[in-house]
Amino acid sequence: MHKQIAIIVILLALALSMSGCGSGNGTPGSGNINGTWTFALTNTDGSPAYTFSTTFTQGSGGTLNITNFTFTSTGPCFASYQTSETGTFGLMGNFNGNVTGTFDMTISTMFPGATNNVLTLQGVVNGNTISGNWTLTGGTGCSGKGMFTIQSKG
User: Fold this and answer.
1) In terms of CB atoms within 10 Å, which of 21, 77, 131, 139 comes out highest?
2) What is the C-alpha separation between 42 and 48, in angstroms, rounded?
């Protein structure tokens, strides 16, 4: 009788710990990055650089499907230009629902036959926040670097 109770307790504990894994909306314990995210990029001096939002959907092999990408403040390097967005991530988690990992994203203007402006973000995932560094290269006046923070809207 005691063995059966012990087995039931172990199975219940395992089931509860696994409930923090699997699909979700980019929140702690979700095990993926699905959801809407808002970005705030600052220059090295702490002044605002860019803000935007997008929806991530987990693709195969750590790729991101990026939709609904919208700059909310663009500056001259991305003002009303068509862009291409790509990204990857690597997430890890534990049975306490803590999600961590890596994040990479590239946003590029699509100028045919010209120098494109390319914004690259590299960071780390910690629960429902992603933070790291960004760099911008491209045409005249379109270079810079700084830090970013991304928050999940859930």
Assistant:
1) 77
2) 4
Return the residue matching tokens 């890890």: 92
Angstrom distance (rounded) from CA 57 to CA 99: 16
**Average pLDDT for residues 61-68, to the nearest whole number?**
87
Assign 47 a pLDDT band (cuts: 50, 70, 90). very high
Domains, the chain, ordered by start = 2-152 (2.40.128)
pTM of the model: 0.73
Half-sphere exposure for 120 (CA within 13 Å, toward CB) = 8
Task: Point out which residues pair with 56 in neighbouring strands.
Answer: 35, 66
- Identify the band that residue 8 occupies on the pLDDT scale cut at 50, 70 and 90: very low
What token pair was written down for 136?
């911008």
